[in-house]
Fold C2H2-type domain-containing protein.
Amino acid sequence: MKRTEDPEEQRDPIEESEESEELMEVKEESKELREVKEESEELREVKEESEELREVKEESEELSEVEEESEELREVKEEHHVKPGEKPLSRSKTKNTFLKKRKDNKSFTCTQCGKSFACKRNLESHMRVHTGEKPFMCEQCEKRFTDKHSLKRHMRVHTGEKPHLCNQCGNSFSHSASLKKHMRIHTGEKPFTCDQCGNSFSQSSSLKKHMMIHTGEKLFTCVHCSKTFLRASHLKTHLAVHSKEKPHSCSVCGKSFSLLPYLQRHQKIHTGVREYMCFECEKTFTTVNNLKQHQIIHTGEKPYKCSHCDKRFNRSGYLKSHQIIHTGEKPYKCSHCDKRFNRSGHLKLHQIIHTGEKPYKCSHCDKRFSQLSNLKSHERIHTGEKPYKCSHCDKRFSVSGHLKTHERIHRREKPHTCDQCEKSFSIKSHLKIHMKIHAVEKPHHHSLRSHLK
C-alpha cells in the first residue's frame, strides 16, 4: 500500500530557504533595535550624570564664592584691626570697604545695567532679566522662571513643603524670607520708617502702600465707576458692590454677604464675642478697627481736615461724607426708586423701607429693628444705661445723638438756619416747626379758627 505524504513534508526547499532568511533578518532587526534602545538608555544616563555634574559644579562655584567672600571680609577686618587708642571702624564702613574691594575683583559686567558678577554663570543668569528668557518650566502648572533656584522654590507650592520653622510659635513657611518677615511679629521689629510722618512698618510693602497716603497716588481704578483705590484688595472688595453677588449666608438669620470677612464680622452679633477691649474705659469691640476708631475718643485726635472749611474729623470716612456737603454729590442711587444719597450707609438704611427687613430682635421684648444701633439704643430702655455724659454738666444720655444735640446748648451752637428769615436753631426739628410759620398753609391757625367757630 502506497504511503500518503504529509503536505508539510512536500514543501519546496527554495521556500524553506527564503523563510529561513526572513527569520534571520527579523532576528537581526530585533537585535539592532535592542542595541539602539540600550544606546538610548545609556545616552539618557550620561545626560543625567552630566546634569548632576553641572549642578555639583554650580554648587561648588557658589561655595567657592562664599569662601572667597568670607576670606576677603576677614582680610578687610585684619587690615582695619583696631590698635590701642584708635577708634574702631564701624560695621557699615567695614562692609562698604569689603563691597568696594569685592566689586573691584568682579570681572563679568552686564552691558545693559552695569552690574558686575564674580563668575560668568551668574552674569548669564542675570541677563535673562533683560532678555525676558525663562527656560525653566514647572511641569505641574507650566509657569516659567529665569533660574533653576526660583523653580525649586516654586515647586514647594505644589508639594506643600514648608522647611522653614518658627521657633516661637511653630508656624512653618516655604521660603526663608517669609519666615524672616513672620519673626518680626514676635520681635516687634519695624525697620521700615516713613520719612514724612515717622510711622514704622515691619514690611517694605506696607511702607510703600502707606506712602501713597502722602503722595495721593491711587493705582487701582474700578472699571465700572472709575473710583480709585490705594490697594488691589480694596478694589476687589469694592467690585462686589457692582456684582451684586452675595454667596456667604449667615446660618442664624439668613443674611447674605458679598465677602467672607463681612459674614464673619456679622456672626459676632449672634455669638456676642468681643475680644478687643479698650484699656481706658474697658469697652469691648468685635473688630480691631472698631477699637482703634473708639480710642480716638480718648486721645481727642482729629487728623482729617476739610479742604473747603476748617472742620476736622477723627475718621477719614467722616471727612469724605462731610465733603459731599460742599460738592452736593449724591452717587448712591436706590435700585427700587429714584432716590439718591450722599452716603452708602444712608442708601442701605433707605432700602430696608422697600425690603421691610428687621433682623435685630430685642432680648428683653419682642420688638425688632432694621438697624443694630437702634436695637442697642432700645435695649437701654430696659437696662436704664446712659453711657453718654455731657462734658459741661452732669447730664447723661442713652443715645449719642441726644448728647450731641444737648451740648449745642452749652456751645451756643445753632447750625440749622431758616432760609426765609435767617433765624437759627440748635435742633433740626425746631427749624421744621418754625418753617410752618412761613408756609402758605398754616395748619395750626386753621385748626384754631375752626375751634373758635
The two ends are 159 Å apart (CA to CA).
